[in-house]
Fold this sequence. Notes:
The structure is a single chain. Helix 3 (128-141) packs across helix 4. The chain has helices at 47-53, 121-125, 128-141, 158-169, 182-191, 205-212, 227-236, 261-265, 280-293, 295-299, 316-324; strands spanning 5-11, 21-27, 35-44, 70-78, 91-95, 104-108, 112-114, 149-152, 174-179, 196-199, 218-223, 237-245, 269-272, 307-312, 331-335. Helix 7 links the parallel strand 11 and strand 12 (237-245). It has 11 helices and 15 strands. It starts with a strand and ends in a 6-residue tail after the last strand. Keywords: NADP, Oxidoreductase. This is Enoyl reductase (ER) domain-containing protein.
Amino acid sequence: MTNKFMRAISIRGGKGSADALFINNIPMPELEESQALVRIKAFGLNRMDLLQREGKYPLPPQAPSTMGVEFSGEIEELGQNPENGFEVGDEVFGLAYGGAYAEYIAVSTHMLIHKPKELSWEAAAGIPEAWITATQALYLIGGYKPGNSVLWHAGASSVSIAGIQLAKSDGASSVHVTVGSQDKIDFCVCELGVTAAYNYKTQNWASEIARATQGGGVDVIVDFVGATHFQGNLNIAAQDARIVQLGQMGGSVLPAGVDISGLLRKRVRLEGSTLRSRDVSYQKKLRDLLVEHALPKFKDGTFTVFIEKVLPFEQIAEAHQLLESNCTKGKVICSFLENRP
């Protein structure tokens, strides 16, 4: 490459509020053997980015300091030993350990997916983190089988939006969600077609789900909230249920009086997981699952990438503030497609 530097988003002082984000000139990444250099067209925002910006997200050792784990773009250069099937000029999208808030990214070809012509750059950039996390939670950890019932907490989050579509398309007997506003209830019921949605701020969601399932409970529960939902999850877990813990937005210390007897009585399996800290071979397995099960349904329109808003790269602070508002229903995307030299 003739340019040895590129524009990227950095944080003044290493951590801070959204206002601390700024456009910086940093060295271009150097390619390793199995990597591709991708010129980024768009990238997606995730809650881990907010935590990383605040200095609250421990980075895996292979992650660069630049934020961003999902993107779409065009391959400009390949390392000496890329995965078969990728060529310079290919339109791709993919998952990375970091570095997507930039004009270029060096990323393993094992984590790239060819972009179908039916998907826009912005839609493709909003797929990798949410849909791969949802695939991991539902199938690899949650052990989902057709006919199971599913509960997605944070039902209007991008991961849950993906997971709801996966579960519905794969024969779930019922899909329940919890959310924090009537607007999000309407979205989940009317747009996503969930069986029922509950406002955790105004309803006793566990009692409502127990009533709706006639006491039978839910087979697979995916939770991003943590401590405040822990007891409710156990209360509405079905016999041999699986609870997948992906976050702790509601705290990590359990309140006094939590009764864990349901773990034994119902033979509940509770497993926590992350994605970013996994090795490339694990992430490649998830990528392949996504390509096999979901990519055809993006092409034919069965699956939809819900986008809250697309902002230009230069408005990264506003993008972070929008995600922080907790009012989004779908992805916040930043794009290089406008005003790019």
